[in-house]
Design goal:
The complex is a heterodimer of chains A (about 110) and B (about 120). With about 110 residues, chain A is an all-beta fold. Chain A has strands at about 5, 10-15, 20-25, 30, 35, 40-45, 50-55, 60, 70-75, 75-80, 90-95, 105, 110. In chain A, strands 2, 6, 7, 8, 11, 12 and 13 form a seven-stranded mixed sheet that branches. A four-stranded antiparallel sheet of chain A has the order 1-3-10-9, with no helix packed on it. Chain B has strands at about 5, 10, 20-25, 35-40, 50-55, 60, 70-75, 80-85, 95-105, 105-115, 115-120. In chain B, strand 9 and strand 10 form a beta hairpin. The chains are: A mainly beta (about 110), B mainly beta (about 120).
């Protein structure tokens, strides 16, 4: 299985400041045939199911605010929130869909400082 | 916009079998390029993919659960189902029905989630 490791486990950021969450996969999730990274990011607010934010490592899902961005390639990826808003308090997960079983990171809890 | 709804028992006894049904509305389960699946989340913990099924009946299961899992699809009812056998307390979780894009792994990114159903395994 591909192991997804997120850092940090929790993060406190001031409103309006940048938040950065990292995700590392135990093997590359870059498919050389199409040069795509099979990596997604999700946001889960308390009491709700997760919501897809980013797919193909850097493609923003429709309706997701542009303060959310994804970057990285191969084994190292980053989710960045450029200007933290109160509604961004949540747990964030990365997921690889390069091989079965698809696997998730352990989650990063984001709070307001 | 597609919606998914989980239905099934909320309390199951150890060693018994869990049967969950996922009902899809707002779209056809027979549409190409989407897989239908289940992901679970133990209370206060992370996400675990259980398995996925295509409208043809092609399935992918998590190897960690493969011996205990079976999924089926009923396109006439726009539903898919999960059977999970030999339950233990470790199977206590919120079970989410999901729709995922197709990928080289079978299941791709998950773009639609049900609200989830908490299933507790206890005597």
């Amino acid at each position: 299985d591909i192991v997804m490791t997120q850092s940090p486990d929790s993060l406190a950021v001031s409103l309006g400041e940048r938040a950065t969450i990292n995700c590392k996969s135990s093997q590359s999730v870059l498919y050389s045939s199409n040069n795509k990274n099979y990596l997604a990011w999700y946001q889960q607010k308390a009491g709700q199911p997760p919501k897809l934010l980013i797919y193909w490592a850097s493609n923003r899902e429709s309706g997701v605010p542009d303060r959310f961005s994804g970057s990285g390639s191969g084994t190292d990826f980053t989710l960045t929130i450029s200007s933290l808003q109160p509604e961004d308090v949540a747990v964030y997960y990365c997921q690889q869909y390069y091989v079965t079983p698809i696997t998730f990171g352990q989650g990063t809890r984001l709070e307001i400082k | 916009q597609v919606q998914l709804q989980e239905s099934g028992p909320r309390l199951v006894r150890p060693s018994e079998t869990l049967s969950l049904t996922c009902t899809v509305s707002g779209g056809s389960i027979s549409v190409y390029s989407f897989y239908w699946g289940l992901i679970r989340q133990p209370p206060g913990k992370g996400l675990e993919w259980i398995g996925s099924i295509y409208n043809s009946g092609l399935t992918y299961y998590n190897p960690s659960l493969k011996s205990r899992v079976a999924m089926s699809v009923d396109t006439s009812r726009n539903q898919f189902s999960l059977r999970l056998t030999s339950l233990t307390a470790a199977d206590t979780a919120v079970y989410y029905c999901v729709r995922a894009a197709s990928s080289i792994a079978g299941t791709g990114e998950v773009d639609s989630w049900g609200q989830g159903i908490l299933v507790t395994v206890s005597s």
